[in-house]
Each structure stands twice: as structure tokens, then as C-alpha cells.
Amino acid sequence: MKKLIALFAVSTLASTAATAGIALSGAASVSYDDNGSKASATTYDADITLVGTAGGTTFTYSMDVDRASPATTGADMATTIGPVTIAADMFDAAESVTDSGTGNVKVQSVDTGVTISLDAPIGDATVGLDNSGNVTVSGTWSGVTVSHTAKNGGDTTTAAAAIAGMDISVTNKAGATTWSLGTTVSGVDLTLNSKQAITAAFGLTGNTMTVSHVAAVATAVSTATTHSVSAVKAYSTVAISRDLTSGAALSATYSSLDDSLTLKASVAF
Fold first, then answer.
1. From CA 208, how far away is CA 200, in angstroms rounded?
2. Is 178:186 a contact under the CB 8 Å cutoff?
3. How many CB atoms lie within 10 A of CB 62?
4. What's the CA dihedral at 166, 208, 216, 163 to 10 degrees?
5. In the prediction, which pLDDT does 174 show?
6. Which of 38, 176, 229, 250 is the most buried if burial means most Cβ atoms within 10 Å?
7. Mean of the per-residue pLDDT values of the chain
8. CA–CA separation, 32 vs 187, rounded Å?
9. pLDDT digits 0-9 by tens, 146-159
10. How many Å from the N-terminal Cα to the C-terminal Cα in the chain?
11. pLDDT, tens digit, 9 for 90 and up, residues 3-19
């Protein structure tokens, strides 16, 4: 009997210690969209994320729960052993291979994998290697954060910095360069990118209005691996968001693309 009592005590302590390293968060929302001249629609979304931490190891699990059978949306583990960090993506997300006019893939790919990173004593650089053979070198020098990934199908290089009150980011992927700029003028947060998309956010936290111009999308033919892209004309959106005393948030978004108004109530914890 004493052995059983001792075993129960040890089990209780272990459970208590494990619970202390668990963080639960989530979000839920309901949206009503009048869809302009089309039939209106009401949609729902609810997600739960569980993060377990033990020493230098973290496991993150997320679920989409607004359905009859809740579905896994992510399962990741990361651990640190001295200067080495090991990250494992253990969930193979399902991709739509049906032609949607957005250039989506034709064949489902496997996106699980393991990445091993080493904090090398080379000017604060980090060197990473994943199971596909891609090598990434990243770090921050003189206030500029640079990352370069050498991989099959084209290298990718990114650089980001805050200069004279502007946040600048440049990416070159397989020879194609994109960029974005962000700054604040008279309390208005402005962003601009190489696709000619512009966003302006007004107001304070909890009570904001965001005006956006979304650039046109040009038609692109299908390739051996991706479907074609359908043209979409440029349009603008205006979104007003307000935090409520109930703990929820209410937003209204108008889009000139289809003359639609969307009302959304959401909560996050």
C-alpha cells in the first residue's frame, strides 16, 4: 500500500509539472457577407492552439474546430541542444490541386521535414540545413538582417532593415525581386510593395480604420507544376475595427471588387 501511495504521489507531481508547461490559446469568429449583388453568406471560424514547453523543447499543436470532425492544422517541435536548434514539421498539410485560377499546384507535395540550425561564431550568423538539402545562412550585420537560402529551383535572398524611420524589405527569389516599404506619417501607418499594393492604417489600438488598394492580378498560363492564373482587376477595401468591452472585436469591411460589405465579430484568448 505504501508503494502505491508513493507511486500515486510521484504521478501527481509529474502531472502538475507537465500542466505548468502548457499554454492554450485560440480564436473564433463569425462573419456575414452581403456579397454585393450575389446571395449573402454567413461563415464561421474557430481554432485552438496548444503549446507545451519542457526545458529547451517546445511542441506546438493547432486544430481547426469549426466542423463536425476537428482537423489538425499544424504539429511542430523544436529543441535546442547547445548551439544547435532542431525543428521538425510533422504535419503534412493538404493542398488543393483543383484548378482555382490562382496558380495553385497540380500535384500534392509533402511539406513535412526537419531543419537543423547552428549558431556559428561568424559575425552572429546562423547556418541551417534541412532534410531537402537546402542550406540557409542568416544573421544581422550593422542593423541589416540578411538571409540566403541555397536550394534546387533557385536561391532566395532576403534583406530587411529600419532606416530613417522606414522599414525596408527586399527579396530576390530565383532572379525575381520583390520589395516592401513601411513608415508612419502623422500617425498614419503606410505600407507599399512592388506589386503596387498600398495600405494606410488610421487610429489607435482597438479603434482603427484601414484603407487598402489591392493591385491587379495578370493572367498567367499553366505550367507543368501549377495551374493557370485568372486576371483580377485592381480594387480597394476599407475596414473599420473596434474592440468591445465584452472582450470581442467587431469589424466592417467594404470591398469595391464586388461591392460587398462584410461584418465580422471575433474573439481571441
1. 10
2. no
3. 19
4. 0
5. 86
6. 229
7. 90
8. 31
9. 999 998 778 999 99
10. 44
11. 434 544 444 444 444 55
Ramachandran quadrant class, 168 (left: phi over 0; alpha: psi -120 to 50; beta: rest) = beta
| Sequence-distant contacts of 157-165: CB under 8 A, at least 24 apart | none
Q: Identify whether the C-beta of residue 24 lies closer than 8 Å to the C-beta of residue 50.
A: yes
pLDDT above 60 (res 89): yes
Query: Average pLDDT of 85-103?
Result: 92
* 34 burial via Cβ count (<10 Å: 0-12, 13-18, 19+): middle
Task: Write the burial class of residue 12 (CB in 10 Å: 0-12 exposed, 13-18 middle, 19+ buried).
Answer: exposed
Handedness of CA 201, 202, 203, 208 (dihedral sign): negative
Banded model confidence at residue 20, pLDDT cuts 50, 70, 90? low
Point out which residues pair with 88 in neighbouring strands: 77, 114
